[in-house]
Amino acid sequence: xxxRLNITIEENLLDKVKTYAVQNDTSVSSLVEEHFEALVKPKxxxxxxxxxxxxxxxxxxxxIPENYDYKEEYYKAKAKKMGYEDLL
Length: 88
Fold this sequence. Notes:
By secondary structure, the chain is mostly helical. It has one domain. It is 52% helix and 0% strand.
């Protein structure tokens, strides 16, 4: 069962939202409902109930030398993979 909701927003924002809704063949109500659904959707958890941010922070850190040439290492790895490492 759907219920009515009254909200107040700036007029110029409402005009932009209405234009967006028309361009995307939807309604403002549908946009609002989809947004609210995304807000209340449970966030996926990793092992031990960690969020992705917590997991990334828990990963080991390693030092990369200042003069490390990413581009050179990339092309070396590509050449090795394709069997052209003796051409380097």
